[in-house]
Automatic annotation (TrEMBL):
Protein name: Tryptophan synthase beta chain-like PALP domain-containing protein
Transferase as UniProt keyword: yes
UniProt keyword annotations, A-Z: Amino-acid biosynthesis, Cysteine biosynthesis, Pyridoxal phosphate, Transferase
Domain spans labelled Tryptophan synthase beta chain-like PALP: 6-308
A Gene Ontology BP annotation from the UniProt entry: cysteine biosynthetic process from serine
Record-level Gene Ontology MF annotations: transferase activity
Cofactor(s) in the UniProt record: pyridoxal 5'-phosphate
Family: Belongs to the cysteine synthase/cystathionine beta-synthase family.
TM annotation in the entry: none
Organism: Triparma strigata
Presence of the UniProt keyword Transferase in the record: yes
């Protein structure tokens, strides 16, 4: 077994230039500093520990997971360290950088059509489940369904945030599996009940609507992913992880891909190089802080998650060609005054 770098205990960074411009205090949890490069390292450790402690994952076993990419990287890294094999399936929207990283770490990678609906055997989550059930000594770690995912955040991310900022006014974050927001929200609701929790929902996702109406509208996104170009977040169904956090979420707001992409460059030009979901979280945290300010909170302190680093998206938002093909020319020249659409 090779030594592993520590996961968690990441710094909570004040986003100074943005804070100075808007008169708020946004704090970004620098999850891109985890050894696998994302917040999903935390969930992956918790899932592997859970399945090995329960006796479902035995030495030398095969770990199977359907992933938006980062959980696959985290599991591939940990499986290498712990002597397991790793199979990951993912939609064809995942960046080539993430796929190459998983393969370099020794995982078997299957890319599935993003057009498949969640009930389709070709959907990336169905493939992981089916490989696990048809292979001896294999386990499906089920990051959407297993609450070991959110526990990584109720016992790790949440307490770390509150220790770094004991007088936190708000926490705002988007959901993929929902593990991060559910875990942080459930911890804060008992340890800091005055902290307001806000879901940030990307375009095409159904969670904001679910929170207000209790149901998902038929939006034509049966693949469960929505139509956002922001990888790893946005969902059109209720996962067990997100459901466990619902009682602790006080507010919800939307953020667009355009806002997230503009924020990517504003952060990068200030020396914080992150992926689009991190940037979308910052957009949401900013909107939520401005809302709290309008309600009379002076210089509101709002924390969010900087989920992963920008290097995984050099072939996507950080590629001039990719931006031009999608009509996003010029997003890199946006100023603070133009970052929000409304
Ligand atoms: N951002 C990225 C890039 C991700 O890969 C994920 C995980 N799907 C998230 C955000 C959302 O995290 P969670 O699954 O804990 O909701």
């Amino acid at each position: 077994m090779l030594p592993s770098a520590p996961i968690g205990n990441t710094p909570l960074l004040p986003l100074s230039a943005l804070n100075a411009h808007f008169g708020v205090t946004l704090l970004g949890k620098a999850e891109y500093l985890n050894p696998g490069g994302s917040v999903k390292d935390r969930a992956a450790v918790s899932l592997l520990d859970h399945y090995s402690a329960s006796g479902q994952l035995l030495p030398g076993g095969l770990v199977c997971e359907g992933t938006g990419g980062n959980t696959g990287i985290a599991l591939a890294m940990l499986c290498g360290q712990r002597g397991y094999s790793c199979y990951v399936s993912m939609p064809d929207t995942v960046s080539s950088e993430k796929i190459s990283t998983m393969r370099a770490l020794g995982a078997t990678v299957e890319v599935c059509p993003s057009t498949a609906s969640v009930s389709d055997p070709e959907h990336y989550t169905s493939r992981a489940r089916s490989i696990a059930s048809s292979t001896p000594n294999a386990v499906h770690t089920d990051q959407f369904g297993s609450l070991a995912n959110m526990r990584a955040h109720s016992t790790g991310t949440g307490p770390e945030i509150l220790a770094a900022c004991p007088d936190l006014d708000g926490f705002a974050c988007a959901a993929g599996t929902g593990g991060t927001i559910a875990g942080v929200a459930s911890y804060l609701s008992s340890s800091s009940p005055s902290t307001q929790i806000c879901l940030v929902d990307p375009q095409g996702s159904g969670l904001k609507n679910y929170l207000s109406s209790g149901s998902f509208s038929k939006s034509g996104h049966e693949n469960g992913l929505g139509d956002t170009l922001t990888e790893g977040i946005g969902i059109g169904r209720l996962t067990s992880n997100f459901a466990s956090g619902v009682p602790h979420v006080h507010a919800a707001l939307s953020a667009s891909d355009l806002e997230a992409f503009r924020m990517c460059f504003l952060l990068a030009r200030g020396g914080v190089f992150v992926g689009p979901s991190a940037a979308l979280n910052v957009v949401g945290a900013l909107k939520f802080a401005l809302r709290l300010k309008r309600l009379g909170v002076v210089n509101p302190k709002v924390a969010t998650i900087l989920c992963d680093g920008g290097a995984s998206y050099l072939s996507k938002i950080y590629s001039e060609e990719w931006r031009e093909e999608r009509g996003l020319k010029g997003v890199e020249r946006c100023g603070w005054e133009d970052v929000l659409e409304d």
